[in-house]
Design a protein that fits this description.
203 residues; mainly alpha; Four Helix Bundle (Hemerythrin (Met), subunit A); 8 helices; globular
Length: 203
């Protein structure tokens, strides 16, 4: 019993709570988005984006980095992204091809993380390039939604440009994570992610 309480206390941190909030917010975000209550959905998206922006910084600053947080944070990111891009594709059919690519990339990343866990290898924490890609995603989505909701303006070319920029950022992040994934698999007996990343940068 005492051990269970200790585990709960260890993982009940502000960053983990923020990641959990991002997951909970997905449901009202999707409902308001599909009902074209864009201001309401924008508020939920802002809450999600801000929590994503600050959870990692808080974890590092106050030494609240946990194994649960390293798993929960990317899961919250991926679930939010997948939910929003599906809603976006329903409202903006022109971006479906890009949406399919984005979803495929995130599904592969989730599978990769699951493979590492099955092999008892510590998955890498979210990195700066992943955060930048997520930030670009939020900016693009917010721009498209605001133009549609506030100004009643829809431009397929602009939508494709914004989603293409998001796609490029996501692919760069995916390739960077894939390199780390391969190195972790090859060095499964020494899965020091920080050392592997520093060696990769040195090369």
């Amino acid at each position: 019993m005492s051990k269970g309480v200790d585990i709960l206390k260890k993982n009940l941190t502000i960053p983990n709570i923020l990641s959990f909030i991002r997951i909970v917010v997905i449901v009202p975000l999707v409902i308001s988005f599909l009902n074209e209550r864009f201001i309401e959905s924008g508020i939920y998206l802002l809450i999600s984006g801000l929590s994503d922006m600050f959870d990692g910084a808080i974890a590092r600053k106050f030494n609240q980095v946990t194994q649960l947080g390293k798993i929960l944070d990317p899961i919250a990111d991926k679930l939010t992204l997948i939910a929003v891009v599906i809603c976006l594709a329903i409202l903006f059919p022109s971006v479906w091809p890009i949406v399919i690519i984005l979803m495929s990339k995130d599904i592969l990343m989730l599978i990769g993380g699951a493979v590492l866990l099955c092999m008892k290898i510590r998955p890498p924490a979210a990195k700066w390039y992943g955060k930048v890609a997520t930030a670009i995603f939020y900016v693009s989505i917010t721009t498209m939604v605001c133009l549609s909701a506030i100004f009643n303006y829809k431009n397929d070319v602009l939508d494709i440009i914004l989603m293409s920029l998001t796609l490029i950022a996501m692919i760069v992040a995916f390739v960077s994570y894939a390199i780390i994934f391969v190195k972790l698999i090859k060095n499964r007996n020494n899965n020091d992610i920080d050392k592997i990343e520093s060696e990769s940068k040195a090369k």
